[in-house]
Amino acid sequence: MPIWLEFDEMPLRSDLAIIKKWITPGSRVLDLGCGNGALLHALREERQVEGYGLEINPKNIVSCLQLGINVIQLDLDEGLDDFDDQAFDYVIMTQTLQAVHYPDHLLQEVLRVGKQGIVTFPNFAYWKNRIQIGLQGKMPVSRALPAQWYETHNIHLCTVKDFQQLCRQRNIKIQEKVILDHAHRPSAPITFLPNLLGQTAIYRCQRQER
Amino acid sequence: MPKSIPADSVGLVAPQTAHFDEPIELVCGQTLPRFDLVYETYGKLNAKRDNALLFCHALSGDHHAAGYHSMEDRKPGWWDGYIGPGKAFDTNRYFVVCPNNLGGCKGSTGPNTVNPETGKFYGPDFPLFTVKDWVNSQKQLMDSIGINQWAAVVGGSLGGMQVLQWAIDYPDKLRHALVIAAAPRLSAQNIGFNEVARQAILSDPEFHGGHYYEHNVVPRRGLMLARMLGHITYLSDDAMRAQFGRDLQTGRLSYDFDVQFQVESYLRHQGSSFVDRFDANTYLLMTKALDYFDPAADFENGLAEALSQTAAKFLVISFTSDWRFAPARSMEIVKALTDAQRQVSYAEVESSEGHDAFLLPNSYYTDVLNAYMAGV
Hints:
The complex is a heterodimer of chains A (210) and B (376). Chain A is 31% helix and 22% strand. Chain A has eight helices and seven strands, in the order αβαβαββαβααβααβ. In chain A, strand 1 (28-32), helix 2 (38-47) and strand 2 form a beta-alpha-beta unit. Chain A is globular and about 45 Å long. Chain B has ten helices and twelve strands. Chain A binds chain B through residues 28, 50, 52, 58, 61-66, 68-74, 82-84, 87, and chain B through 315, 331, 334-335, 338-339, 341, 343-348, 350, 364, 367-368, 371-372, 374-375.
């Protein structure tokens, strides 16, 4: 395998550090697909947030309970009907949008339940992915997309362009975005070519006032 | 019978009795002039008196939650799998208290005990008590033992309902609330099953209006039927299929009404052994306490408003195949707690064993309890 196709060095979920900076201390947070609870734990310790994580995987539920995180075992594909409108200051969805059955519906739900939504996903148009699919003719496999096509949970992968187009169509206002390269740096070239050079996309958005 | 006591058992235990000489006023308006509660404890109360757990039993449970009463016992207490040294509710760390509820039939004041005012059994004259009354009587037990705050109150099924009531009525008296396989109130279907069970008892000719003690009989057939019906609702379709299928006792159909299918034999055995250990009047009253339980009713049917009274941190657990109190019923509690901005975690445990799963071994259930209790 050529050197520029090697797995990236940084763990993808260091995007959490950027999200943490966006959260106002003392706010109420709902974390969709909260994994092992690492983000909520950091937010509780350093931002004094209150809130809940939603998670479906039993191992992750146990990890969250060990950390003392409030975690609710729930299938996100069944929606957020159990939560009232604008019940949280932030609804966070890290690396989850691409793994649900109805991402557009869930995105709208995020902004119904949360005053603001924070969404991260792997940018499928990242140049290394383009090389794997364009030159090698194979589904990309990388640190950001580690699973083979037949075992991946990612059923609705999208690109930076796709996501921004969906936001326009659904009247969602993007308030802030950070696109990170493979080393999770927001470098200068990314500003000009985010859809090509960005590996991970992080958005803070809310419903457009009408 | 245990040949030897397992290392992770609380061992041989003996119940104690607490006497309360002050009258207790019940929700129904009646007053009991005095009452006894039988209870068991395991583990040691620490010097700060802050390591006590209260266990609330379900419909047919009692104070014997763990360990053995004698080396002749066939089975340990009803939650022995989870209470003991090194178990989820670790008796090396916690002091466990488990009472037989008021109105029960295992020694606490109830229909099968003598009314001091008449010198006769209470029988059908025992007042109709509610979950709230149980919690008030358990609070008196708490005071008598000298516990200021429970580390956690824990219960499954009807026990889980007592946990909810504790958290609402005495918010500063518990730090954690573990509500397992419960519901915020019964559905029409639940009440329907209870009513059939009651009618089975009430229509037994040997019930004698509840005065069967004086006739030296018990409404055996009625209580047995009630238990057989209840037992079906505790199991899942899958569990019954796996355990019995359509297997026959003798291998062939006999074209009469004797026991033929193994499931019939099992249910008759469950029913008949229940009659030997349970009182029909208590069964009637317990099912009524279940039917009446509805903490939201005091708050204009707002469960979130009711649970806004609470201060405890909650763990809610349900079981996938439980159709008596299905996971959706537990989610009603979770939703109300999140609406009320309370601290809550929720686990839905995969199990094929129906409502009874909360009493049975299950590795995920154990992991969840262990992980949560580490922070209690």
